[in-house]
Structures are given as structure tokens and as C-alpha cells.
Amino acid sequence: MSTRAKELITIAIIAVFSVVIYILKITGVMTGIEFSGTVSTIIIIAIFLALLVILIRTLRGHLVDRRTVFLFIAFSVALPLLMNISQKITVSGEVEQVYNAVIDLQPGSRVLVSFDYDPASAPELQPMAESFLRLCFMRDLKVIVMGLWPQGPQQAELAMSTILEDDEMKAKNIKYGIDYVNLGYQAGNEFVVQRMGSDFKSMFRKDYSGRAYDDLPLVKNVKNFSNIDYSFNLSAGYPGTQEWVQVAVDRYGLKMGGGNTAVQAPMMYTYLNAGQLEGLLGGMSGGAEFEYLANFTGKATKYMLSQSFAHMVVVAFIIIGNAAFFRSGREKKL
Amino acid sequence: MRRQIPLFITFFVGTLLIFSVFIPPMETWGEDFTLFFDIIAVFAFFLGGGNLMRVHFNKLTRRKQDWTYSIVTLAGFFFMLVLGLLKIGNPGGIAASVTAEGSWFQTMFNDVLNPLQSTMYALLAFFVASASYRAFRAKNREATILLVAAFIILLGRTPFGMYLTAWVPESFSVLQIPNLAIWIMNSPNLAGQRAIIIGIGLGVVSMSMRLILGIERTYLGDDSG
Q: How far is CA B221 from each of CA B2, B13, B48, B218, rounded to the nearest angstrom?
């Protein structure tokens, strides 16, 4: 069989598998599936033993190819989603800062949340968005949403629709225009932030759904950043937290926290330690820590188990790769 | 004149924007100038769309390598363009927002673009794992330091890191993996990032001065300067 034919068969199998999983998900069949503690333990031991076997085989000179690595990553990401194992979550100082900043706000305070990411980064940032918005509404804060990325406001709508299904949120009777507003997307990157420093309305004459700025009770008296009590930026790149800090924080004195992808978060420690950024949620672990503080078990806590397993598998394969490297006299390539 | 006019515009706008930051009465001038960005951005959207069509039509008509993917690109582009412009399925009709709940455009975003982009991003996990396996080697001192740092960060960001070093006495808690990960992020990482940011800042300043003073002229299509 040719390589092309093998590729096509693999793609077909993955496509069929994905469609089946998707149908099971939307029909609700997947919701109730959960491994028992015994099954979870057996799976973990099986993965550990398999990695041990690979290490021993590697030391004997039998190298594994990258398809085996892919297979282990697939298992380590997918299977923990069905496990019911709780992990101890240690809260870092930067996450606590964001939480405290929200808690310290008086009910009715205005919080600006900028959604500067697209669906590609949603698995990491969407859980943060949901838990942050949820905490804001629980504290009776008023939320103004916007985006410097075209798909950002749509991600905000998805987050809103998810949290508004919650019974606690329904009890709050949250109303659009009074409790929250989605101002939508505006092109112009950091120039939008700069203009907002003097006049919000000049950048957002209409909201996401086409309503005039002055018709929205929550924002009609919001002139610029001086009317905002706290800001939270969910960012996956440019324009994002860095631009908000450089313009809104440094020039206009906006109080701001950040929620970044794990790749971007290390770059933000500069602003965090300088006090320009009041708190930071970095990657999935940041989201899980925030959920823990907010006393809410959301997606980040659930996905964190998969990430932990994937990290462990990556660590195991780095050890295996180095074992092969040293065994082959530091010459052989994998 | 073909060169003098763009050079003058660059000098004038650049100088004005610098002054607008430092001289308060001129602050609004700088903000007014930012409106030009919006105007240019509108043209950039058209230019981007036009360029996408030109490149892929060209690939398609000349049957270049992987031309079949161009069909998918163009079909997706026109399909979403029609859905957005005509607001097909929009519950509020043509006057309502393009992203209104229930519109085909929004449905495509939620049910097609969202999972597809998430899938593409998720593939990163496989590539990172494969690359780590094949390339993360203790080849020399620098690579070993990098390897150890990666190990600590990978483990420190998960509860496993805490379990592994839970036996370390409280008086030596700095040696626990999560604390080591925090130290790496707050000290060596911070120092490196600051150096990079300061370097970028100085680079931006010097390049801006070269542009404003007309020393750097490559943007005019002239690489002699």
C-alpha cells in the first residue's frame, strides 16, 4: 500500500471518529460517561508501564518513532477527560492578585474585559473568560466587553451564553445593557486603546448587536478609562496585554489584570513585577487556580488533568530521548 | 518629487506624533491622527481579500502544486462573504447584526471555524511532544541548563511536581519543584524578557529616527539608503 493511501485511510478514520464523538457529544450521550476510580488507576498504571517498556527497549537499542509519541499524547490528553480524579491546586500569587482585585471592587463597579483572541486559543482562554465573568456577576459588577481581535467579541458571546445557563446566574437576572454590554470589535490595535483613553464612544458608536452607544444605560456615562474601575485582558498575542499595558496602564493609569496563553504568559512577568499588571492568569493552570479561588469547578479544572498527564508524558519522552542519545554515544538522531 | 513627498510626509507625521506625546496641547492632534489608521485599515481589508483571491486564482488556473487546496480556500472565502453580506438566515433580516444568534454566519463560526481552529491549535501538543523527544538533548552545558529548566517548568505547572517534592522539609521549600518553577519565571525569565523588551524598545527608537530623518528608505522600494 502506498504512503498516500495510508495517509488517506488515516485521515478517513480520524474524520469518522471525530464525527461520531461530535454526534455523541451533541446528543448528550458523552455527558454521563466517566471512568471509575479503579479503571482510572488501571489506565494510569498501563500508561506508566508502557513508558517503562519503551525506556527499557530504548536502552537496548530499539528506538520508538514519533508516531508512538503521538499515540501516547493522544491517550494522555483524551483519557483523563473521562476520569474523575481530583488534583490539589496550589494558587500562585499572580492569580490571587486578580482574584483579590475583583473581590475588592464595590458592587456596581465597572469592569472592562477585552477579548483579544480567536477560537484557536479558546481551549486555554475560554475557561478563564467564563470563570472571570462569572465571578464579576456573582459580585454584582458591571461588565463591558470588547475585542481588538475580530473574533474576540464572538468568543465573549459564547462565554456569556455558557455562564448564563447556570442556575446561579439565572437567579441574578442579568440584563443586557444594564449589567453587561458587548461593544464588539474595532480595528486599529493599540490605536483603539489610545482613542479609548479620551473617548470610548469615538471607537464604539454602536455595540456588537448594532445598538447606539448612548442607548446603553451601562456605558452612556462612560467617557474614558477614568470611568473604569478594573480591566481584564484575555490575550493570545498581538494586539494584547502588552499593548494594553503600554497605552492604557502607562498613559491613562488603568488598573489591569491579564489572562494569557501559557506561551505568552512568561513575557508578562516583566509588567507584573513592575506593578503595571495587577495579576496574571497564565495558561490552563492559571485558569484552574482562579476557578479554585472562585469556588467554581469549571473547564480549566477539568482540562488541567489532561494537561498534567500530557506534561508527564512529554517529560517521560524527554528522558527516553536522552537515554537513547547517551546510549548511542551522543550521535544517533531519532 | 516621487521620493521627496513620501519622505516629507514621513518626517512631518513622525515629528508631529512624537511632539504630541510630550506636549499636552498637541495630545489631541496625535489622537486625531490615529483615525488615519482606521481609514488605512479599511483599504487593507479590501487589499487582503483581493490579494487572497489573486494568489489562489493564479494557483488554480496554472495548476500549481496543491492547487486543490486553493478551491477549498476560495470556496470558504466566498461562502462566508455571501453569508456575511447578505446576512442569510439572520433572524433580524438585512438590518440586523451580521453575528446575530441564529444567523448562518454565526452558526458557521460556532460550529465550523471554532472547532477547526481549536483542532489546529491542539495539534501543537503533538508537535511539541515529538520535538521535545527528538531535540531536547543534554548535548552541552547550555542545552543541559535549558533541559533542566524545561523539566522544572513542565513539572512545576502540574500537581505532580508538588507530589514529587512534597517530602522536602518546609525550611527548604524553595527546592520544591513548584517553587523552583516560580523562581525561574520570576528571576531568570524576567531578566531575559526585560533585556529583550529594552532591546526591542531601543531598536524601535533607532529605526523610527532613521525613518523620520529619511536615512532608512527601503519602504520607498529603494534599498540603497
A: 11, 20, 20, 5
